[in-house]
Amino acid sequence: MTVMTPAAADRVPAGTPAVGSGSVVLRALLRNKLAVLALAVLVLLLAAALFAPLIAPYDPNSQDLLLRLRPPAWQDGGSGAHPLGTDQLGRDMLSRVIYGARVSLLVGAGAALLAGAIGTVVGLVSGYFGGWADRVLMRLADIQLAFPALLLALAIVGFLGSGLWYVILVLGFTGWVSYARVVRSEVMSLRSRDFITEARAIGVTDATIMRRHLLPNVMAPLATIATLHVAAAVVAEASLSYLGLGVPKETVTWGSMLADGQLYLGTSWWVAVFPGIALMLTSLAINITGDALRDVADPKAYRR
Fold first, then answer.
1. What separation, in Å, do the N-terminal and C-terminal C-alpha atoms of the chain show?
2. For residue 303, what are the contacts with CB-CB under 8 A and spacing of at least 6?
3. Where does the record place the ABC transmembrane type-1 domain (predicted)?
């Protein structure tokens, strides 16, 4: 058996399923014009969320009943002061849509990070050690999958109460299974490779092997799953807020705006349509980006 030096053991071996260099990834993404458009939409949404106090023309909760249900600027009775019109309480729709992006993106990113952390640890342990640890952890995953995710989230939020961080925790703890299964599958295919065997032979600990050798090789599929999970979490948060079980009512969210506007669809369509469009574009852009990342993570994508 070839003896592997400690320095060589720390390197990620060539030919593992990791994504290529940053320049290769960037070139592959730029060839996909739809992905470029989706990334541009996401950048605009992120900028709007980060700089909402500077971009939004009004306080999103500022009410003026004299201006209630004003139509968008291009319709009769509309005003350039409120380009997207006002809602039933005279609040500026453009400001509320901008501020709603903050909650949606924060919940989506927070839930994906939490679920990814839990699922990655579970998948690494399950795939690397196998045996009883694998059986126990995968049966827990099966139990979780037996419950519809949204119904489970509704039950937990109903028990804990509404709140931004509660929603993030709930969506994170109900979304780890997909990460765990993918990581487990990748680790099981890697643990018998020569570089793992050689690392064990020179005395590298299991924790170090998982952290330095296995984890870097599962980052590509993890990035793809995380991107798609952000979109699912954004929609789930909007669903919870629509049902009144998400964040508190005083916090602007697209889901609560949809709930408020459903009564006015026949007369003041803009109250529900604009937050619905924002939610649809966000989810669509994230999913397109996730599909593009999945294509880039496939080594065959570089040869197209």
1. 38
2. none
3. 101-290
Cα–Cα dist 284/292, whole Å? 12
Say if residues 123 and 190 touch (Cβ distance below 8 Å). no
The 10s digit of each residue's pLDDT in 110-133 is 999 999 999 999 999 999 898 898
pLDDT of 25 > 80? The answer is no
- Closest C-alpha among 277, 287, 177, 178 to residue 232: 287
User: Are 247 and 165 in contact, with CB atoms under 8 Å apart?
Assistant: no
- Enter the pTM of the model: 0.80
CB contact set of 58 (below 8 Å; sequence gap of 6+): 91, 92, 95
Of 4-18, 135-149, 268-282, which has the strongest mean pLDDT?
268-282
**CB distance 236 to 228 below 8 Å:** no
Give the whole-angstrom CA distance, residue 100 versus residue 74.
23
Predicted pLDDT at 17: 39
CA separation, residue 221 to residues 55, 150, 283 (Å) = 35, 24, 19
From residue 135, alpha-carbon distances to 62, 121, 127, 140, 179 in Å are 55, 15, 10, 9, 17
Task: Find the length of the chain.
Answer: 304
Would the CA dihedral through 153, 154, 160, 162 be positive or negative?
positive
